[in-house]
Amino acid sequence: MDLLNPNKILMTLEALFSNIAVYHIPLILILLASPWMTYLACYLIPGKKEEPYLLSINLGISMVSMLLLSGYLAYVTNTDGWQKIVKQANLFLLFLPIYHLMVSLWLSSLRIPLQLIPAFRTLQGLTMLGGMFMVLSWLASKIHIVLFSYIPFGTFLVILAVLLGLGYAGYRKVFG
Hints:
Elements: H1 6-22, H2 24-44, H3 50-79, H4 82-88, H5 91-111, H6 118-142, H7 146-150, H8 153-175
Helix pairs in contact: 2-3, 2-5, 3-5, 3-6, 6-8
């Protein structure tokens, strides 16, 4: 039950982000070099079976780094605000995940169509669900809290699940 303690989870996130700050030089080198190394590996070992998986691993690293970036920004803005980001954060480290994602997408599209890469389809799905979540957040900000006092919590969860399901169905319809 100690894993469910929110203070432990925050301490773990804080330790993760402080370890990223401590080991920022190797992380910068990995994120700068991995798209180009993947492209070189695909050039040296061409193959219809190998390339999608190599490019998928690289895009997976991009997705993890983007998730860590968004988690860091959400954590810091909720605890200390943007002032701490400006004062203490390594700005190069903040922009590096965006660079990695853009370069990885560009180099991957030079090798094979992006739809053949499994991680790209996952990235599309996460983007669609993130967009749907932003629409739900905007709708929730426009609706008064009084409405939720009349709806049972289970019904609210069902409504939320239906809306997310509609977002996923829209994603499947648009991207096949």
